[in-house]
Design goal:
- The complex is a heterodimer of chains A (249) and B (438).
- Chain A has 249 residues and is of the alpha/beta class.
- Chain A has a single domain, classed as Rossmann fold (3-Layer(aba) Sandwich), CATH 3.40.50.300.
- Helix content of chain A is 38%, strand content 29%.
- Chain A has 9 helices and 12 strands.
- In chain A, α6 runs parallel beside α7.
- Chain B is 21% helix and 37% strand.
- Chain B is built from 9 helices and 20 strands.
- In chain B, the strands form 2 sheets. Chain B has a 10-stranded mixed sheet with strand order 2-1-5-8-10-12-14-16-18-20, covered by helices on one side. In chain B, strands 3, 4, 6, 7, 9, 11, 13, 15, 17 and 19 form a 10-stranded mixed sheet that branches.
- Chain B is globular, with a radius of gyration of 21 Å.
- Classes of the chains: A alpha/beta (249), B alpha/beta (438).
Chain lengths: 249, 438
C-alpha cells in the first residue's frame, strides 16, 4: 500500500527527516513512536503533502503511484487522510457543510456527481453514531470552541466519512480523557479492514492498548532506529526513550 | 459650471417649490451657505486623506428628480427582504413609489420625510429632532440639509415595539442620465421602544449615480434600535452615507454595514452617547475587488460615564481595491468606567489591493477600558493545509477560509432572514458553496 523510500525532508533549510524507509501493507496498523522533535509530525505532514516541507530526496509511493508531485488535495483524492494533532477552527462553516464539501470535492476529482443529499444524510448519521456524536454537534462551526476530545472525535468522524485507504493519526491521543480515547479507538477499529491501513503516530503507549499495532517503529533524529512488534511499545513505556537514543548514537 | 456652482445656482429654483414660511427654510438657507463656504471635501483634509471624490464630482448630474419612474415588483423583488413580513418605504430616482411601498400610521409612523416636513401633525417632532444631531459643519451633510425634500420618516412612540422590520430602499434607474440623489432619513425611537431597520441603495442599470445620504437616529432611554445597511450596488454607483446616532441612557443601538459592491462608498458613522449605561455597536463586513473603494469613518463620542461601544470591522480586498478604516473614539473626562472596544481585521487577497487603517483614541478619563487592534494579513497556512488535506482544492479552500474570516461578524445580526441573506451574499462574493444545513 505505502512505500516510503529513503525520505529526506527539511523545513526552512533545516533537515528533519534523514532517510526514512517504511513499508505498510493493506490491513496493517503501524505505530510510529519517538521522543519530541524526532520528526514524527513532519513525517505525517510530508506524506499528506504539506508544502511547508521540502522533500529533498526519496519517494512516497501509494499503491504503485509516486505522490511526490501531488498537492495535498490530490493525495486526499487518492486516499490519504491525516488526522491532525491540532485541528483548525473554521467559524461559520458547520461540520456537516465541511464534510459535504470535502466529499463532493473528492467525488468531483473522480468524475462523479455530488453525493445525493439523502445518501449523504444517511452516511453522516451512521458515522456520527459510530463516534457517538450528537446531531447538534454537526451543526456547530467546525472545531470552534470544541473540547480536545470533540476535536479528535470530529477528526475520526471525517476519516469515517472520507473512507481513506491510508489513515495517519497524528497524536490523536493527546488531550483525550480515557472515555474519549476509547470512543476514538473504537471508531478507528471499526473502520479498519483488510483493504486499508493505519499509521498511528504517538508519543505514549496508551493509545496502542486500544488500537493494537502490527508493527511499531521508533523514530529518532529523523530516522527509524528500531522496528518491532507491539511488545516494543511496552518496552518503550517501561524504559523511556533514552536507551533508544543511546542505541542510535 | 462645476457641480458646486450648479448646486448653489439651483437652490433658488428648488426653494420655490417649497413652503418658504416653514422653519426648515431658514435651516436650508443656512446649510447652503455652510456648504458654499466649505465646499466639497478634498484629500487635503485629514478625514478625507485616503478617499478622493474629485472624479465623481466631474459628472454632470441632474439634481432634481424629474418624474416618477415605474418598475415592476417582479424585477426588483430580489433586492428586498422578501421572505419576511416588513414595512417598506421605497423610492425610485428619489421619488416615492407608493406601489412598491407598505407604510403605516398604525401605532407607529413609517412614512415620508416630505410629509413629516410639511404637515402640522409632525411639526413638534421635526422641531425637536430634525437636523439636531447631524454635524452642522460637515459640508456634505450641510448640502443634504439644504436640499432635503424626501426620505424615510420613522417614529416609534414610547413603549412600542415595531412588530415588523422596516425596509428603506432607494432604487435608481438610468432614465435621467447621471444623477445626484440626496435622501434624508429621520428615525425616532422613544423611551422603551424597539425597531429594526434595513436600508439599501440599489441602481437597476449600471449608470453614474452619486448618493449623498443623511440619516439621523434618536434612541431615547431604554430604546433598542438595530440598523442594517446593505451596500451591494452596481459598478458605477457611489454612496456617501452620513449617519448620526444620538443615544440616551440605557439605550442600545447597533449599525451593521455590509459593503460588497459599488464604485466608491464612504460611510461616516457617528455615535453620540448622551446618558449612562448606553451600548453602541458598529459592525461591518467589506468584500470588494476590481478598483472598488470603501471607506469606513467612525466616531464614538463617550460623553457620559458607564457606557460601552463595540466596533468590529472585517475587510477582504482583492485586485486593485482600496479599503479605509478610520475609527475615532473620544472619551470625555467625566466618562469614567467607559468600555470601548475596536477591532479592524483585514485580508488582502492580492498584492495590488490596499488597506489604510487608522485607530484614533482620545481618552481624557482615567478609569476606562479601551482596546483597539487592527491586523492586515493573508490566510492562515495551517488552516489552508487542513482543508486541502480533506480533498478541498486550494481555490475553494481559500474561499472557505475567507468566508469563515468574515462570517463571524454576523453573530450579532438579530433578524435570521438578514443573516441568511448576508451569508449567501458573502458566499457568492467569494465563490464558495456553503450549502444548507441538513
Amino acid at each position: 500500500m505505502l512505500t516510503v523510500k529513503d525520505l529526506h525532508a527539511s523545513v526552512e533549510g533545516k533537515e528533519i527527516l534523514k532517510g526514512i524507509n517504511l513499508e505498510v501493507n493493506p490491513g496493517e496498523v503501524h505505530a510510529i513512536m519517538g521522543p519530541n522533535g524526532s520528526g514524527k509530525s513532519t513525517l505525517s505532514a510530508v506524506i499528506a503533502g504539506n508544502e511547508d516541507y521540502e522533500v529533498e530526496k526519496g519517494e512516497i509511493i501509494l499503491n504503485g503511484e509516486d505522490l511526490s508531485e501531488d498537492d495535498a488535495e490530490t493525495r486526499a483524492h487518492k486516499g490519504v487522510f491525516l488526522s491532525f494533532q491540532y485541528p483548525v477552527e473554521i467559524p461559520g462553516v458547520t461540520v456537516t457543510n465541511f464534510i459535504k464539501t470535502a466529499i463532493n470535492a473528492s467525488r468531483k476529482a473522480q468524475g462523479l456527481d455530488d453525493m445525493p443529499a439523502k445518501d449523504m444524510l444517511k452516511n453522516i448519521r451512521e458515522k456520527a453514531a459510530l463516534l457517538e456524536i450528537d446531531s447538534k454537534f454537526l451543526s456547530r462551526s467546525l472545531n470552534e470552541g470544541f473540547s480536545g476530545g470533540e476535536k479528535k472525535r470530529n477528526e475520526i468522524f471525517q476519516m469515517a466519512m472520507l473512507e481513506p485507504k491510508l489513515a495517519i493519526l497524528d497524536e490523536t491521543d493527546s488531550g483525550l480523557d480515557i472515555d474519549a480515547l476509547k470512543i476514538v479507538a473504537n471508531g478507528v477499529n471499526k473502520l479498519k479492514s483488510k483493504d486499508n491501513a493505519v499509521i498511528v503516530i504517538t508519543h505514549y503507549q496508551r493509545l496502542l492498548d486500544y488500537i493494537v499495532p502490527d508493527f511499531v517503529h521508533v523514530l529518532h533524529n529523523g530516522k527509524i532506529v528500531k522496528s518491532g512488534t507491539k511488545e516494543l511499545a511496552h518496552e518503550l513505556e517501561a524504559k523511556g526513550y533514552d536507551w533508544i537514543k543511546q542505541l542510535a548514537d | 459650471m462645476d457641480l458646486k456652482e450648479k448646486l448653489i445656482s439651483s437652490f433658488m429654483a428648488f426653494e420655490e417649490q417649497l413652503d418658504l414660511s416653514s422653519p426648515i427654510h431658514e435651516m436650508r438657507t443656512r446649510s447652503l451657505k455652510q456648504f458654499e463656504e466649505i465646499g466639497f471635501p478634498t484629500k487635503k483634509e485629514e478625514a478625507w486623506k485616503y478617499t478622493s471624490i474629485a472624479k465623481l464630482l466631474k459628472n454632470d448630474y441632474s439634481i432634481f428628480p424629474k418624474k416618477e419612474t415605474t418598475i415592476e415588483l417582479k424585477n426588483v423583488k430580489k433586492f428586498f427582504l422578501y421572505d419576511i413580513d416588513t414595512y417598506k418605504i421605497v423610492f425610485i430616482d428619489g421619488v416615492y413609489s407608493p406601489f412598491l411601498s407598505d407604510t403605516t400610521h398604525d401605532g407607529i409612523d413609517v412614512c415620508l420625510m416630505s410629509a413629516a416636513l410639511t404637515r402640522d401633525k409632525y411639526k413638534a417632532t421635526i422641531e425637536k429632532y430634525f437636523n439636531t444631531t447631524a454635524k452642522q459643519d460637515d459640508s456634505l451633510t450641510a448640502l443634504n440639509t439644504a436640499f432635503t425634500k424626501e426620505g424615510a420618516y420613522i417614529f416609534i412612540p414610547k413603549s412600542v415595539v415595531a412588530e415588523k422590520p422596516i425596509q428603506i430602499i432607494y432604487f435608481s434607474t438610468s432614465e435621467q442620465g447621471p444623477m445626484l440623489l440626496q435622501p434624508r432619513n429621520l428615525i425616532v425611537a422613544e423611551e422603551n421602544s424597539q425597531v429594526q431597520i434595513f436600508e439599501r441603495h440599489q441602481s437597476l442599470v449600471s449608470h453614474q449615480v452619486l448618493t449623498n445620504s443623511v440619516t439621523e437616529i434618536f434612541a431615547a432611554e431604554n430604546a433598542i434600535v438595530d440598523y442594517y445597511k446593505v451596500q451591494n450596488d452596481l459598478e458605477e454607483a457611489s454612496l456617501i452615507d452620513n449617519t448620526y446616532v444620538s443615544q440616551k441612557g440605557k439605550s442600545h443601538v447597533s449599525v451593521h454595514t455590509f459593503s460588497f459592491g459599488g464604485k466608491l462608498i464612504r460611510n461616516n458613522l457617528n455615535f453620540y452617547q448622551k446618558g449612562e449605561y448606553i451600548d453602541s455597536t458598529m459592525k461591518g463586513i467589506t468584500i470588494i475587488g476590481d478598483k472598488q473603494h470603501v471607506d469606513h469613518y467612525t466616531l464614538v463620542d463617550h460623553a457620559q460615564p458607564n457606557c460601552e461601544s463595540h466596533q468590529d470591522y472585517k475587510g477582504i480586498y482583492a485586485d486593485k481595491s482600496v479599503g479605509v478604516f478610520n475609527g475615532k473614539i473620544y472619551v470625555n473626562q467625566i466618562a469614567q468606567k467607559t468600555n470601548a472596544f475596536q477591532k479592524n481585521n483585514n485580508i488582502l487577497l492580492d498584492d495590488t489591493a490596499t488597506i489604510n487603517t487608522k485607530p484614533q483614541l482620545e481618552i481624557f478619563a482615567d478609569d476606562v477600558k479601551c482596546s483597539h487592534g487592527c491586523t492586515i494579513g493573508q490566510l492562515d497556512k495551517d488552516a489552508l493545509f487542513y482543508l486541502r488535506s480533506r480533498g478541498i482544492p486550494k481555490k475553494e479552500a481559500k474561499g472557505l477560509l475567507t468566508y469563515a474570516f468574515a462570517n463571524n461578524v454576523l453573530e450579532s445580526v438579530k433578524i435570521p432572514a438578514i443573516k441568511t441573506r448576508i451569508n449567501k451574499l458573502i458566499a457568492n462574493k467569494l465563490g464558495v458553496s456553503v450549502g444548507h444545513d441538513l
